[in-house]
Structures are given as structure tokens and as C-alpha cells.
Give the backbone structure.
Amino acid sequence: MIARRALPLLLLPALATAQRRLPVVGFVGFASEDGDRLTVEAFREGMRAQSQVEGVGWLLDNRHADGDAARGAAIIQEMIALPVAVFIVPGPAAARAVRRATTIPLVAIGLPPVQSDPDLFASLARPGGSVTGFASFGEEMSAKRIEFLRETIPALSAIGVMHNAADPTFDAWGRLSEASARAQGLRVLRLPLTQRDPVALAAGMRALRQEGAQALVVVRDFLTSSLIEDITATALAEGIAVIGDQARFAHAGALFSYGANLPDLFRRAAGYVIRILRGEKPGDLPVQLPTAIEFVVNLRTARALGLTVPHPILARADEVIE
């Protein structure tokens, strides 16, 4: 077999033409490139695990909107024009944007675990239409996240809830977290975001602390995902303990993270992409539920906040950051 680096220059245009005929998978991330890095690589791992060689049997067009939904919509239109053979996206906001723009098959990760948006799918078992994918158990786990914070901060009386207020799904998720906190006897201070603005984020975090909040629940969405480092650094500076639903939050400096293992879902999503490329209809592929839930504890952050994480919580952790 001739190595690609040894191909005569005369053959390179023919190789490029052949590659353009390969089916293109379009990854549209409404968050930042860095925020989507782990999930993109997990998807590639899933494809490789099933002997799908990138650049030989398929191509990946991988783009990110940096928290700007309008830019995300423009990316979708650019990919439709290529066209891509199948979309893969993280989160319901990007999924809805793709679904409304085209009937090109879509595999979405982070769908709600129940049918709550007719724009996405009809039912878990028979989604119908052009959409299938994997649910992620988002705010359904908010009560447990708040329990972890209350066990670690016994005097906790007020808590913040940060969410994307510009998107109806994430605004509803923020209200679910708020209801979970109130049900546990906590005073709730909402911290809604409407755009990727670190300055406004810092001002909101200061106000949160001045109102007496000692902890913050972050609702995952493309805005908060694109601001993870800003959220965790600002919260630590204000003495606020953060919990999110992705391991990336704890790795970036949050006290805890608890939720579905998103890289695992993207690895599994490769199987659906392959089946669609081979001719199966997404509407016939059931929306699957997560099988891996991970709990990460950051002891470095606990020490910086002057907190002692109880042993029963440490015993439950899948990963402890020393």
C-alpha cells in the first residue's frame, strides 16, 4: 500500500475529489470548540471502534458557535448546503435548530428523557421523523445534586441556580432546579444568562454572594458549557461551591459534578450514525437512555473553600480530584 505522503502530486486532486464523495457527518456544537473537544473525540473513538476510518469511509465537519445561537443557525445552513449526510449535535437547542432547518437525519445527545418537545421526537421507542439519539437525565437529577451540597455544607440556607434564560428548554430546566431546592427548604436565587458575557457573569456571582448564597447549581446548556472556566474561577473567588452535571465542571474547579457520562453517549452515538449512513431511518431507532452516571468530587476545591467532604459522599464518587 502506498503511503499518502508518497503519492505523486498529479494524483492529489483525484484523491481530494474521491474524499469529497465520502459521506460527511456534520457536528454542530453551540458551545465552544474547547467545550466540545471531549465529546468530538469520543465520537471519533466510537467510529474507530467500529472500524470506520475517518478520511477513508467518512468525513467529519466539526464546527462550534461559541455560545452564539445565531452563529449556530448559520453553521447549520452552511452544512445543509454541502450537504452533510447526517448531523450529530449536543443538546436540545442545537437539535431543535437542525430539525427546524432540514430533514437531513439527526443524531442528538442530551435529549429530554421524556417526549416533551414535538419538534424533536414523537416517543422514545418510535421517535419518527428525522431525529433520534440519546437522553441525558439533566434536571431530573437536580434533587440529588442539591442533597450533595447540603450534606457538605450543613448550614446551607440559600442557593443559586444558573441557567440559560434565552432558551425555553433551559429556562424550564432552571425552574426545575429551583423547585428542587425549595422542596429541600432552601432560599433560591436565580442567575439567568442571556449571552456569553464573563463581565455580567462576574457581577451576578458577586450579587449572589452578597445575598447569602454559599452554593450554585449550574444547569448545563451551550452558554454555561462555553463559560465553564469563568463560572468555576469566579465562584471560587467568591467562596461559592459549584455543582454541575458534567465531569468537565469538576475538572475545571467545581466542587462536584453529577450526571450522565456525555463522552460515553457520544461513543454510543457512533453506532446510530453508522446505521443511518447505511440506510436506516432515524425515526425507527429508539431514543436511548444513559447507562453511565458519574459523580466527581474535587477535593482541591473543597480545601480552597474550607469545606470537608463527608466520607459517605467520597465513597460514592467515581473520581476524586486530589
